[in-house]
Structure formats: C-alpha cells, structure tokens
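Data availability (excerpt). The following record was deposited with the supplementary files.
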Amino acid sequence: MKVVILQVGKTTMPAVQSLCSEYQKRLQRYVGLEITVIPDLKNTKNLRPQQVKELEGERLLKELKAGDHVLLMDEKGKEFTSRGWAQNLQKIMNGGPHRLVFVIGGAYGFSPAVYQKAQGKVALSQMTFSHQIVRALFMEQLYRAFSILNNDPYHHS
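Predicted structure:
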C-alpha cells in the first residue's frame, strides 16, 4: 500500500519544510510515501472563497484514482488519541486500499465535490491551524502512528 499526502500549495516556511522533510524521511522506513503538491491558484484576489474551493477541488479530484481511500484533514473531522489514530490507520490498511490518500486543503477548505469523494475527515485539534503548519503536525502524527503499530519506542504511553 502507498500513502499519499495531497496538499494545496507548496510549503513556503523553511522551518515547516524542514520538519516535513524529517518526518518524510522517517516514514519511508514504514511505508511508501508520496507527497503531491497541487500548485496554488494564481490571481485569486477577485475570487470569492467558494470559487477558490471549487477550482482547488477540481485540481485535487484529478489526482485521485479509483480505489483510493481518501481522508480529508478537516477541522470538523474526527479527533483521535495517538493510539486511536494508529488503530484507525490499521483498520483502513487491513481493508486493502491500493492508496491511502490524505488531503490537506487550502486556506478555505474543500469544495462539496471533494467532501463527497472522501471516506472520512480527520481533525488534529478543535483549534484552527494554518494549512502550512498542519502539514508538519500531521506528518509527525502519521509517523507516531506507524511507530505505535510497529512497537517502536517513539511513542510513550
């Protein structure tokens, strides 16, 4: 199985990029990982947030394949403990999807079409984080989950 992180826009903060690179390197030990960046839209000043979501959504949907298990990183999604998150991932992986795709949207979130395509939504917190920061937080939690599943000493109960 391959894990794909599909994100809108490149990571522009050097500290966040450094953290993401570190966790990407660590995750390679457990799973095939691919990070796909959907380029930011240009000239959005005259667009309403809904229009931005629709245009980003079209780009995101083009990256999805039949049989993907799609989870959206969404502030209204389900929250987990780290162990619960690991168990949830194991359950999904046991279902045998070819690709497990995590989608990190842009500043305005997702279009209705993207929500319809997803099998679930996951929240890192009830707090709102920038979509840049979410990348590093999510990759750390993904690494933590795989370390739990592999009985590695990273996570302390």
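Summary of structural features: The radius of gyration is 15 Å.
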